[in-house]
């Protein structure tokens, strides 16, 4: 009796208090997000690394001796950072989108909406989960790549900057997708018709200069291009877009998407309605 | 009300419903269900592989910086496009039966199959027929989609149909084994990422196996998917790495072995009645 009714001793029951931030709540949700993907690490970490390796193999065996250097580096050195960034993009997106989607389908999304946690806190936890998965996969893929390619690390801070900002961007897009989609089919459609084409056509496999002029112009509006280009710049020290423009685009996209997701969560779009 | 049940009663005594040597109606039902199930989500089963094939064609096309790049005795794109048709067809074959079986398992209705008046042989045939038809449909659509970007008319259409069908049958039977074995979606995804995809991607879709080091050659030639892809490329371009008759024989051998295995699994009720 005593342990279940501690508040009786002080008279009326009291509301539990937090500081400005419900740190414990954020930490708990983040912890859940990370445990969710680590539990199935063969699918969430090993599978993307194997897929990246397969892509590296087919492109290097098919094209290494057929394509001259891209800019001043060899084709494989050009290719490897792009592939690592592709896997960051896809996994950060997959983490938040599948988490929200599964919660919605299984009906336990209320368990995330009910606790005393603000929209801002909630999205920080989700984003951090997506970024954690992106970084773990990136580290694993980079380690494997180092056995195959002689990758220079021209500008390590740029590598980290673009890895994290791109990961945040896709984690936010994943939240939007997860909130919007009503069925797994919708999610598969977003992945197949938006995320995969954008990441394939954003300069992983070729320099943007190879495109016809109109398409070069169009490609400049693809934020994935700046993510891949900036990340590659961090490795090889040269890029198509330039560091500052890339950094500005990434930060701008992150902020814009952050506001959109915050708005969605604050109004309860498709979640509380 | 009672008329439909009365039809089974002859001369006052109920009799068992009779079929010929094969329960054709049951087989047709099952085949129809599989096809409807696959193509109801046509955005995923038809549009997605088409988009993916076009993406692969464009990134390879853009990565190649000279027009005279060749592979296996062909212009590079000429070499690549038949391979992309093969990938799309085989992927559909892999995803057909296994996904259907695991879906039924998660819904708890898979054991219904054991109660139908269908023999194990008929069940295997029903799934296999659906895999092959689905692969032929997806293959044809992807082939047509690749025509504007440099695809070619097949030089030997019947040989093409044979190799797509044989490949789809082989992969479709493998898909049935995977579906029976898998308890959850996770198992399926693992088989797809760690077994199916490497076998397909390293089979010579994107490069001639002559490009591989001498040490890797025997492994590449032991991969049955290599013979399917090579056969499909042969029937479209007339150029092959291996003798098409060898390819046909390898396909036939694998199909027989896989068929026997799948039949035994269904007959024994593996993860179905146990």
DSSP E strands of chain B, number: 4
Main sheet strand line-up of chain B:
1-2
Judging from the principal axes of the Cα atoms, what is the shape of chain B? elongated
Strand proportion of chain A: under 5%
- Rg of chain A, Å, rounded: 21 Å
How many domains would you count in the coordinates of chain A? 1
Structure summary:
Chain A has 10 helices and no strands. Chain A is mostly helical and 273 residues long.
How would you describe this structure to a colleague?
The complex is a heterodimer of chains A (273) and B (274). Chain A has one domain. Chain A is built from 10 helices and no strands. Chain A has helices at residues 23-39, 41-63, 75-106, 110-113, 119-146, 156-180, 184-200, 213-219, 223-236, 243-267. In chain A, helix 6 (156-180) packs parallel to helix 10 (243-267). The model of chain A has no long low-confidence stretch (mean pLDDT 92). Chain B has one domain. In chain B, a hairpin with a 2-residue loop joins strand 3 and strand 4. The two termini of chain B are 37 Å apart. Chain B has helices at 3-6, 24-40, 42-63, 76-107, 112-115, 120-146, 157-181, 185-201, 217-222, 224-237, 244-268; strands at residues 9-10, 13-14, 70-71, 74-75. Mean pLDDT of chain B is 91; it is low at 1-6. With 274 residues, chain B is an all-alpha fold.
């Amino acid at each position: 009796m005593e342990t279940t009714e501690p508040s009786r001793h002080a008279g009326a029951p009291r509301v539990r208090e937090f500081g400005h931030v419900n740190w414990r709540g954020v930490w708990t949700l983040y912890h859940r997000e990370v445990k969710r993907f680590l539990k199935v690490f063969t699918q969430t970490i090993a599978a993307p690394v194997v897929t990246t390796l397969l892509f590296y193999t087919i492109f290097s065996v098919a094209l290494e001796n057929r394509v001259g250097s891209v800019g001043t580096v060899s084709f494989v050195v050009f290719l490897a950072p792009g592939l690592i960034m592709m896997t960051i993009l896809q996994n950060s997106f997959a983490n938040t989108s599948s988490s929200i989607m599964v919660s919605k389908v299984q009906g336990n999304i209320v368990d995330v909406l009910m606790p005393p946690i603000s929209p801002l806190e909630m999205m920080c936890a989700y984003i951090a989960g997506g970024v954690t998965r992106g970084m773990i996969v990136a580290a694993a893929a980079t380690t494997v790549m180092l056995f195959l390619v002689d990758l220079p690390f021209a500008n390590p801070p740029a590598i980290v900057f673009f890895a994290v900002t791109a990961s945040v961007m896709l984690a936010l897009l994943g939240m939007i997708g997860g909130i919007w989609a009503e069925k797994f089919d919708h999610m598969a459609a977003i992945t197949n018709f938006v995320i995969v084409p954008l990441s394939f056509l954003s300069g992983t496999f070729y320099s943007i200069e190879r495109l016809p002029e109109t398409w070069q112009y169009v490609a400049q509006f693809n934020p994935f291009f700046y993510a891949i280009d900036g990340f590659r710049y961090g490795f090889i020290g040269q890029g198509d877009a330039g560091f500052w423009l890339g950094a500005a685009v990434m930060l701008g996209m992150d902020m814009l998407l952050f506001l959109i997701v915050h708005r969605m969560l604050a109004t309860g779009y498709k979640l509380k309605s | 009300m009672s008329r439909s049940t009365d039809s089974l009663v002859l001369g006052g005594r109920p009799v068992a419903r009779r079929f010929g040597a094969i329960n054709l109606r049951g087989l047709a039902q099952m085949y129809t269900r599989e096809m409807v199930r696959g193509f109801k989500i046509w955005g995923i089963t038809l549009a997605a592989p088409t988009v993916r094939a076009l993406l692969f064609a464009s990134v390879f096309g853009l990565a190649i910086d000279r027009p005279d790049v060749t592979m296996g005795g062909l212009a590079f794109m000429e070499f690549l496009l038949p391979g992309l048709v093969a990938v799309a067809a085989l992927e559909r074959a892999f995803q057909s039966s296994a996904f259907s079986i695991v879906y039924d398992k998660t819904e708890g209705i898979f054991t219904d199959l054991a109660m139908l008046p269908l023999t194990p042989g008929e069940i295997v045939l029903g799934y296999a027929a659906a895999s092959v038809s689905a692969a032929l449909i997806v293959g044809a659509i992807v082939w047509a989609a690749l025509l504007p970007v440099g695809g070619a008319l097949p030089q030997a259409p019947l040989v093409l149909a044979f190799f797509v069908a044989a490949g789809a049958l082989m992969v479709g039977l493998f898909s049935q084994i995977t579906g029976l074995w898998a308890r959850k979606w996770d198992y399926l995804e693992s088989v797809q990422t760690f077994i199916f995809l490497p076998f397909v991607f390293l089979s010579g879709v994107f490069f001639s196996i002559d490009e591989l080091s001498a040490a890797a050659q025997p492994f590449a030639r032991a991969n049955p998917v290599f013979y399917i892809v090579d056969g499909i490329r042969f029937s479209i371009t007339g150029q092959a790495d291996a003798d098409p008759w060898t390819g046909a024989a390898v396909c036939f051998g694998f199909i027989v072995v896989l068929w026997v295995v799948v039949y035994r699994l269904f007959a024994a009720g593996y993860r179905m009645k146990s």
